[in-house]
Amino acid sequence: MKRQKPYWLALIAIMMIAMMAGCGNSGNNGAGNTEAPPATGTANEDNTPDASAKKIVVGFAQIGQESGWRDAETASIKETFTNDPQFELKFSDAQQKQENQIKAIRTFIAQKVDVIGLAPVVESGWETVLKEAKDAGIPVFLLDRGITKGNEDLYTSFIGSDFILEGENAAKWMIDEFGADATVNIVQLEGTVGASAANDRKKGFEDGIKDKPGYKIVYSQTGDFTRAKGKEVMEAYLKKDKNIQVVYAHNDDMALGAIQAIEEAGLKPGTDIKIIGVDGIKAAFEAIKEGKMNVTVECNPLLGPQLKQAILDLKAGKELEKWIKSEEDVYFGQKAIDALPNRKY
Ligand code: AHR
User: Least buried of 57, 66, 67, 212, by fewest C-beta within 10 Å?
Assistant: First the structure.
């Protein structure tokens, strides 16, 4: 007759199985692999999410409130994740400081959020903290701005625009406007020092004019993506030199600041000096309609829905693109005027 196993052996086996099931969420589902955030419960019969199910907690480390574009991006994230009962959003505003963004990420890790979203204020200096998120098994999505190349294993996907292309499109508009052989003096208002949006828009634009010897950047200075600094930099430059034909600003807010400075200096923006901006905010479309600005190269800030879709795809075990690109256009003249009534931000 076989001896029966003691009941405690069976009990240990059951406990081990239960512990293994409980560990399902502690595997490395961080950047660089495609393991999904934890399951969030069931859907109702009509397929709408069950509000009582466990929510996907998203921590978002935002840069600040430097521009109309940034406000639109923040609104898109807040609307997307607070209007959907599957999610809970933890939002942090770093007031332009990388150290505050790093602190926010560490807080999200301590809170054991399911996903982290980061709009990195500058490109460099993220390795340590993103490694901490990876070690904690939390997937990180970069939104809008990128980080230094070579760190692709530290995040799941980058969602945003091609900033180099935006710079190239700005240069293309200008060369179409003035002609390839024209002599054109340009003031460039750069974005935040070290930001991918500033580095790449500068590169794209400068590449776009490099074989056009008549096009000269006579001054290039940061305006930190704000209207106030765009105005300040332009005011200072116009006191020394008014022989410029173009202002190329890395965002619309700085372009709008420059417009004020040009008017105060007794010149006509849009006519005496052509104004090129990037972003496509409503105020830029209004300035184009008034004839004070010439062109805005669009950069889409409404990234909340794309982030949400990426998180759901990750959860469903789908393969994600490393770069989820936004769709964009270039607006000038009548095309901008026609588009104005439908601009949301
Ligand atoms: O990173 C995107 C840039 O950041 C936008 O062009 C600018 O307006 C913002 O502040």
Answer: 212
In ligand 1, the atom with minimum distance to the C-alpha of 281 is: 8
pLDDT tens figures, 54-77: 999 999 999 999 999 999 999 999
R_g (Cα) of the chain, nearest Å: 25
Q: Which residues approach ligand 1 with their CB closer than 6 A?
A: 66-67, 69-70, 144-145, 197, 225, 251, 253, 278-279, 299
Q: State pTM to two decimals.
A: 0.86
Integer Cα distance of 292 and 285 in angstroms: 10
Rounded Cα distance between 158 and 142, Å, is 5
Q: State the CB neighbour count (10 A cutoff) for residue 313.
A: 17
The average pLDDT across 313-342 equals: 96
Q: Which residues of 81-108 are buried (b: 16+ CB within 10 A; e: fewer)?
A: beebebbbbbbbbbebebebbbebbeeb
pLDDT higher for 307 or 14? Answer: 307
Q: How many angstroms does the Cα of residue 158 sit away from the middle of ligand 1? A: 15
